[in-house]
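User: structure tokens for this one?
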Amino acid sequence: MKRPDMRIFDALSGIVPKDAILQDVSIGIFWTYVQTQYGSAISASAHRWCEDPPGAIIPLAGRLEGMPVSELFSLYDSASLTARSLANAAVAASFPASRMTGQIFPGKAQTLLETLCMAKPKHIALIGHFHFADELRTFGHQLDIYELDGRCEPGDLPDSQIPKYLPNADIVVMTSSTIITHATEQILDSCRHDAFKMIVGPTVPLHPILWDYGFDAVCGSIITDNAQVSATARQGGNHKQMTGTEKLNFIRPGTE
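Assistant:
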């Protein structure tokens, strides 16, 4: 199946309800939270990986609530990763998470990944650092870890090597933060056709349009307590402190 030519963000922004309005916005050190009348979402505040440019990175900060979501679309192409995160969260919050389709596999993405690898060792590619990497190695899997150029640790492959080496992987697990760095679609282009492709993390928008892009599993978070999540983001909470969400894994419809 040929995936759409447009970016995931552009496909989603094209179907955002015209009356979608920002009701609550919190931009913290680690997380950006947005609520509209249709839903709520969080997105990684990615300035921790790359310094934001000088100037007004969020042009209308202090006046965002009450604005149409559509007025934030252009921020996704900002030089500021913080602004991109806000645009992504706003679009993701414009759809109720209940619209997401696929078989639900409860719990952590790590559990799903271990289930996929149970029969025999696999060649696994991790796009980004995941805490379960060392554990995967103990099961005998061949593991490649890709990281942004300049953020590589010893043994990592720089992301510039993805087109060369990623086709070797049986399973590709990418962090949902690739949506903020504009890398998701390029990574998908480098995957082998029969590789099992997963995107993992709260930043991923939960919408069935992701199946059109070739993902086999979407592992994200549903917000169960808006007030708690907004407060945690606003007060600088990290992923361990982010309560009020439920992790769910969605498997592509029709996958056995």
